[in-house]
Fold these 3 entries.
Entry 1:
Amino acid sequence: MTDLKNFRFETDADGIAVATWDMPGRSMNVITEAVMDELSQIIETVAGDAGIKGCVITSGKDNFSGGADLTMLQGLGRAYEALKATEGEEAAMVRFFEESRRLSLLFRRLETCGKPFVAAISGICLGGAFELALACHHRIASDDPKTRVGLPEIKVGLFPGGGGTQRVARLMQTGDALQMLFKGEQLRPLMARNMGLVHAVAPKDEIVAQAKAWIAGGGSAVAPWDVPKFKAPSGKVYSPAGMMIWPPANAIYRRETHDNYPAAKAILASVYEGLQLPMDLALKVESRYFAKILRTSEAQAMIRTLFISMGELNKGARRPKDVPPTDLKRVGVVGAGFMGAGVAYVSASAGLEVVLIDQTAEAAEKGKAYAHSLITGQINKGRAKTADRDALLARIQTTTDYAALKDCDLVIEAVFEDPRVKAEVIRQVEAAIGPDAVFASNTSTLPITGLAKASARPDQFVGIHFFSPVEKMMLVEIIKGEATGDRAIATALDYVRLIKKTPIVVNDSRGFFANRCVTAYILEGHKMLLEGVPPAMIENAGKMAGMPVGPLSLNDEVALDLGLKIAKATEAQLGPDAIDHGQKQLLVELVENQGRLGRKNRKGFYDYPEGAPKRLWPGLKDLQPTRLDPDSLDIEELKHRLLVVQALEAARTVGEGVITDPREADVGSILGFGFAPFTGGALSYIDFMGAAAFVELAQALEAHHGPRFSVPENLLAMARDGGTFYGAARQQAA
Ligand code: NAD
């Protein structure tokens, strides 16, 4: 064997080898070209050396591995385009297919090499790494609380192409296997064992010894599916049992994806076809689908946004380089209401000391009680211990006294959305904190530059905009006011990193980035309602377009009175042309005349009956001046309206300099408001469609529906020049 760089390989006196995966200079093992080369050498050495009985594969790091290096897969796509240009499509396809199935062939070689392999897993073992484990003849997982196995490829628009679909479908009942592949969940060790995906669970420091013992005890080097007369757990596809599974599986696929995710369809096809074939052919079928999916715009867009860009933003891509790392230990949260309580909880969960202030001791305590209820929920789910709760609550100090903020490095205010109340809070906080502390506002609508006028040190004043519920939503918008300095931005970014959320940095604007797009989505739903589109059709069009919920449902979650309040405030400040009067009237009717505020009072566009699913309020039809015949409506146009209106708003934020990096609009739109993830985000939606085609679509909508579909100048120019948002950003950076 030539020198191994990514593995240590040792054989003990009993002839049992241990390959310890430990890539130099990386915190996490990933599957790269070099790793595949070395793994191949290890397999051939084990297979060819009569003195070696078998081999244990384990990791020298805390985690086993996060899976394949997705940038390598992106590289395959680029190589394909290059080869297609020089040698033609067929030659490029042949090469692409061979390259994209390398991992699958390697794992199959391991499985059939004649010597037993055991995976000894601790920590994260996901994607391609778990496919490696599945190809091993035996799997032992450690009971370490951090151990997780799974095949999450679907989350980036891919599916397991290293044999995962075939092995899982031969280890589990078909229905369970499909569900596991569709959901891409990370499984805890005991769950994985109960599902038949690993054979044993053992303490971390015993997994390698147990793996060796399994080999020494004569563990078989033949996978169950290579034993003649093997029967899959659910039997044959063409059987009465199979017919109980496949027709509903198709229906579930449609219901869950609205046919927007080619990778999910490929999973269905790959399992369905593969189960009817012997393993080698089945793997070839899987590889064919994998090569096809890897080249879809959905996979390319999702890998770029949800893996690469998100990773870069999480690692501080937008952090001002000259500011030394901050050492945040103590944060203040002023306003212990709905948002403040959530902010206190996530901060304390990250190990920060929290000073939680409200007008009364009871209000502050109520905010802390929220943290108590959340961590108790975690304990009930087995995700935390009572000692964690005690420690977390001990980190939250409640008070009404601003003097307690003295040693805070960062103070976040989440008091009422009223400029006067906020100005008073700013004054009181600044009187109490040290000269280096940063002040942040969690306002959702008030421009930061205006609020900072109440500050004596506007360079240390920044917006940190959370989404609700704080503990669940992964996005945080950091808003740069006109005077906000680099240190405030860096502090905000360091804080967001500590609480393990994803930050985007945007320039000041009414509604910042996310809420502008969300507002456009909700308004479009209201417009449709007033046009006479059946409410259920509006909601379904939203979901079919790829949004997590329809616009009316989303409005119920946000609260209808909040929308009305914002509309009234906007009209008062910017004049009657700044709002949509039909929408205002609709909200006035719902909120003021009908007392329907949304989910919070169980009455909004939907009714929320106790103990039963929500249902659209029958009274909505009486608010419609006309009612259109659903058969006369074009569902594709409704879907387009709902996405295009948001993408146009995103394009405007770029034109206005609110968004300065397309990665942030894309990541922000998916994490912040669930913009159809298969598109890769609101700007990728335009880029992948092509600016010219998008502009044509928007202009056709403008002709029918008015100026909210008018195309901003930056996008018109892009359509003329054949440019893209990402191309423009690259040019600017160069
Ligand atoms: P809330 O009414 O639930 O909480 C506000 C809290 O601030 C109350 O507990 C109140 O007693 C306290 N408070 C008011 N004046 C105070 C003062 N002078 N000193 C100390 N405490 C004071 O409101 P919320 O929904 O948590 O919103 C708070 C802020 O967060 C607002 O600026 C809002 O725009 C913003 N925000 C809200 C959401 C959301 O979905 N609710 C999302 C993002 C941002």
Entry 2:
Amino acid sequence: MKELICLGIETTAHTFGIGIVTSKGKVLANYKKAYTTEKGGIIPYHLFEHHTNVATEVLEDALKIAGVKIQDIGLISYSNAPGLGNALRVGAFVARYLAGKYKIPLVGVNHCIAHLEIGRLLTNAKDPVLLYASGANTQIIAYEGKKYRIFGETLDIGVGNFLDSFARHIGLGFPGGPKIEELARKYAENEKNKNINIDNYKEDKNNINHNVPDLIDLPYSVKGMDVAFGGLLTNLKQKFDSDKFSKEELCYSVQETVFAMLVEVSERAIAHTGKNELLLGGGVACNKRLQEMCRIMCEERGAKFFVPANDVLVDNGLMIAWNGILAFKNNGYKCIKIENADIKPYERTDEVVVKWR
Ligand code: AMP
Ligand code: MG
């Protein structure tokens, strides 16, 4: 049988992405264009316009990169959930059009699950707990009884949106996560250099580690297995507006605090499920300090730690294509009718029955 090639379309939020992958897991293309703003957040109508404007170009370039023609594609997959209606609708429309015009089978996949599956394809993770830390989503997900269950999640906003809101408040622009990371790293380095002073060591009767800067006291909101960021955001804005703290020290402390929250609940999920692997997904997972903290936690408890490359941590079409292949092949090659290719903006990870595991 000829190898199946799937074209996946990602449009849950800011990214219009197209990925192309074979049923053996060979990556042929992963191309995208993302909506950005100078000021403020996502304006749904502008997002719709962005995705409609870039769709043709991203499609053509992805096919060119993959070295295939649309006629070579044996399956179209699109992210049908969860996400912003105005964005999801563009992906569903492009998917319906291609499937209808070229007579290609069509499947819809859940974006959060796709993050976990692409991690399993591209790393050696077999049955991991996924810390999915992105703009809109923050969930701790693991497989149990035919579903990907949510073992912990944010009770209000996603960690990325939280970082972006704080960054916007202190004038760093969007996306704020990478800028916060940069300021925090510089602050930690400067403090470390300052503290390499022989007097510190003379006084260091209690063997205190002088290489770790002090943290500003911030609210630490872990509630059972869940986390919350709203109160922390208000507290941080007040601290910044009081002019008593520098941007750099706030960025350092915010990272240490919220990443500790995420690591704590991830560790507890690993202990509870008895799984022995942690996998990262989502744009915030590009953060080197978060990766380091997760790695240390895993080392300390003898668990394996996996982090895929940045281009699949962020939203991307490749993971949608790969999850499409898994769903299609393991469901008797059943596809959906074009008129049923709907969107589910509020679908939760644990509503999907996982046929491929
Ligand atoms: P996603 O929604 O998964 O595409 O990820 C987008 C989010 O990831 C935005 O909120 C970004 O600010 C955040 N992000 C990207 N890179 C980093 C980073 N290095 N550190 C922290 N957050 C990041
Ligand atoms: Mg995502």
Entry 3:
Amino acid sequence: MSQYKGLLFDLDGVIVDTAKYHFLAWKALADELKIPFNEQDNERLKGVSRMASFEIILELGHRTMTTEEKQRNCDRKNALYVSYIQKLTRNDILPGVESFLTRARKAGYKIALGSASKNSPLILERLGITDLFDAVVDGTKVSKAKPDPEVFLAGAAELGVNPAQCVVFEDAAAGVQAAHLAGMKAVGIGDPAVLRQSDVVLPGFGGMDPGELLARL
Ligand code: B16
Ligand code: MG
């Protein structure tokens, strides 16, 4: 086994592509509020908490709201989003992820989820992969959003692994930054232009062996 002992996975964009459902739900709300919002704007919401996402949308529309109004709108967006993710199944797990997680577990690595999403437990359950995680740190357990390292430090603590022996898998630039601020290595999953600060960038997990990948860090 390598010098690394703990693997921390972001959820949206790494394990499952829920960004499209977040977009559809935010888009429905933005349309109702007559705020222009497109897929490019949606990029700014990746890895960002629900309330902070809505604040970005309000900023796009040059609008302000009271805390209560903001909360009500976030609740409406979430109800719509939850209705979409109820339909997730094992088939929605991104290619290669399940075999990578299974191989990593067999090889003795500890595995945690480190996500901003308060819906993480529901999503893992719908995908049928809850049992592959030794710890789940989600948006209900942390208060500071990525790039703050809180979510990954909490994940390492729950795993009982030193942060320097952890590797983070992330699709968002803010998540890569959070990993580095936690003193961890970061594997970027997705676009090398967005993830240029990562220690390694992969287009996805397809056929990747955990040991071989960690040897490249
Ligand atoms: P929820 P991650 C993040 O998940 C998403 O990327 C981001 O778009 C979303 O706003 C955030 O979760 C909060 O999600 O509304 O379900 O609590 O990428 O950190 O796994
Ligand atoms: Mg993500």
